[in-house]
Amino acid sequence: MSSVLINAEDMDAIALGGAFLGTGGGGDPYIGKLMAQQAIREHGPVTVISPMDVADDALCVPVAMMGAPTVMLEKLPRGDEALEALRQLERFLGKKADALICIEAGGLNSTIPFAVAAATGLPLIDGDGMGRAFPELQMVSLTMHGIKATPLVLADEKGNTSILNTVSNLWTERLARAQTVQMGGAALIASYPMTGAQMKVGLLHDTLSLIKGVGETIKSERDAKRHPGDVLTRRFDGRKLFTGRVTDIERATTGGFARGKAIFKGVDAYAGRTFSIDFQNEFLVAKDGEGRLLATTPDLICALDADGGLPVTTEQLRFGLAVSFIGLPANPQWRTPAGLDLVGPKYFGYDHPFTPVEALHP
């Protein structure tokens, strides 16, 4: 898209697409959708612009939620934390932002920036730093292109704000995560301030258009009484992993993350088999009961309710829920050595190498 106006009604599709591409994480976009719809109704529609239409010397700033998605279900944001973080960052830099960015194409962080864009009147750039959701702050394409996460501002619902300057994006993650835990497990941030020239190189382009298109596909397939899994699998050259019913789930909020493992009993074509999914905010690894790898980070492991076809996030997993899992190829940047250093299996403590989902399911 070159320039498109996003209305309150458009946020339904964007939230659906963000929940699907969020690979189980990034937080339930429903909360962010409501915040965005309220802001759009109050201030007017959001203009989404192409990355290539941004001036090279423009100040571009991502705004996002940081913390455990489960916390956001219990501790709703006040509503102006992200805007406050942006204003504090602008004051620190001595310069106003010219455009806003979604840091990830999944979950809550695919919808909250629309609320800030509506409130400020700033355009939102059609792109993001992941093409999906990842759990840690440094896990963005921007890191691979040498763009610093700091200065970064955190803001919580109590009115606290904090500014960080760090020696690396990994240290930004460590220090911001510790502060987020003290802020109650979730905070809103403004970070990765960059020029338009840096953004054009470091950002994954056109992913907001992609999110909206995915959401519209899910909605149209459901309206036609079809499960959207088949169309989405074909669209992304993905692979069906399994359909199963949750028989056990371990989940804990530790260190600012929602970590856990879910066990599934296969149904339909997968009857008689068992499967498991590990997650850290996002789904990281899928295996069958024999320990065979079905899909692994950084490829996307996306979940849809087996009956209704709606996206399923990690915090929505519960005993008895039937879920269909799809594996999608990650953006090619994540499959490079630099990408795998940031988000590959080894970083998360797994001893298996990365194997593309299409190689696991030829």
TrEMBL record:
Residue ranges constituting the S-Me-THD N-terminal domain according to the UniProt record: 9-165
Annotated organism of origin: Kaistia dalseonensis
Membrane spanning residue stretches: none
Stated name of the protein: DUF917 family protein
InterPro entries reported for this sequence: S-Me-THD-like_C, S-Me-THD_C_sf, S-Me-THD_N, S-Me-THD_N_sf
Higher taxonomy: Bacteria, Pseudomonadati, Pseudomonadota, Alphaproteobacteria, Hyphomicrobiales
Coiled coil: none
Any single Pfam family the record assigns to this protein: S-Me-THD_C
Domain S-Me-THD-like C-terminal: 168-357
Top-level division of the source organism's lineage: Bacteria
Gene3D superfamilies registered for this protein in UniProt: CV3147-like, CV3147-like domain
